[in-house]
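Lecture 7 notes: from sequence to structure.
We start with the chain below.
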Amino acid sequence: MVTRIALTGLGGLLALAPPTLAPLEWDSGPLTVASLHGIVYTAHRGGALEVPENSMSGLTAAYARGTAQVLDFDTRMLRDGTIVVMHDPTLDRTTHTSGPVDRLDARQWTRVRMRPKASLPGRWHAEPLPTADEVLDRLGGRIVLTLEAKDPRSLDGLAAMIRRRGLVRSVFVNSNDPAVALRAHDMGLTAQLWRSKVQMRTDDPARWARFVDLLDVDYQARDADLVRAARSGIPRVWAHTVNSPRQRDRVLRLGCNGVISDAPGLLARTPSHVRARVSGG
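Predicted structure tokens for the same chain:
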């Protein structure tokens, strides 16, 4: 079993090299969302200020460090239907290649190499980028995952992957579109919906309480909009993308019960004394 390490300082963060990619050992069964209690920390794209975002080494390192209970990643679909792990519609920002992601097929995807940001702590190397199948095989059930379906056409394929592995209650399926969240719910998936600060000005999130398991709100939203979300009846209301203790403590005071962060290690080293609403089971 991979040892979980609580960071106690930046030195600890730097000392954690990218782990080897041997198969991880299963416990008695898949970890589900029912295991999430209290203030929940999610590593956004694996923790994009601490590890290479949406990479296998970054996600695996975030899992091993144990500073977040949930790992987040993004998915897109290649032209042959393969579902891969990538945030942007193009390869330009995060890889050594350029061009649209959806012009590649599975064979071409294997030749793409990530480009780690020079600003990241530690030593990281170019590596192949994973498919969604590979991330679910490696980490699914060992930690709760949240994946954003950047391409709604991929929802059927994602549902099949999740069901095949028995991970329906272990993986949040995220979208910015309430209609996609409703479809995910109706397919038996665990639905997550994210909203921007602009969208939140006119949102009535109580309308979504029937089918949204996790409401993912913009920490930059107005106080009133965050309070309305927290009182919507949706059991989990987590704020993104929270990268400082001050930002975290504000959203917790306003009723959120989780944070989604590019810097989960930093937040773990700075405990909050705010009494947050208990996350739903």
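Points to note: The chain has ten helices and nine strands. The chain has a mean pLDDT of 91.
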